Amino acid sequence: MAITPLARILVVDDDLEVVELLREFLEKRGHAVDSAPNGREGLSRIVAARPDLVLLDIRMPDMDGMRALQLIRAIDPALAVIMVTGNEDIAMAREALRVGAVDYVAKPLDLNYLARAVAAAISR
Question: Would you list the domain boundaries of the chain?
Fold first, then answer.
């Protein structure tokens, strides 16, 4: 019998090391994790798989996280999105909260904070 994951989480980040760190961290906590290397692919995965939560990098080539967030809001206004940002992007992360993200996590990642942010996002 398959175990139902706590949540289906999509990680959208062009940094494979960050993706693998997040995948390992989240899967150990019982979540199903999918990933996309950029905003465009992330949007198509959202439409196809309807995740419960998206962890979205702000700085990516092709389509940045802010534009992706705006398009996610058009697709699904209720989808929980946590922005993942480098320390220099804090002002942009705050703007993302205004646009509709539920939280942001700064790189280098504080995994304890991330765990709380994920729990809060999926319980809302």
Answer: 8-123
Q: Is residue 106 within 8 Å of 114, Cβ to Cβ?
A: no
Does the predicted model carry a pTM greater than 0.85? Answer: yes
Q: Which CATH architecture has domain 8-123?
A: 3-Layer(aba) Sandwich (3.40)
Q: What confidence tens digit (pLDDT) does each residue in 23-42 have? A: 999 999 999 999 999 999 99
Kindly write down the DSSP assignment for every residue of 54-83, as one continuous string: EEEES--SSS-HHHHHHHHHHH-TT-EEEE
Contact 12, 48 (CB under 8 A): no
pLDDT of 86-108, one tens digit each? 877 778 888 999 999 999 998 88
Rounded CA separation 79/68 (Å): 13
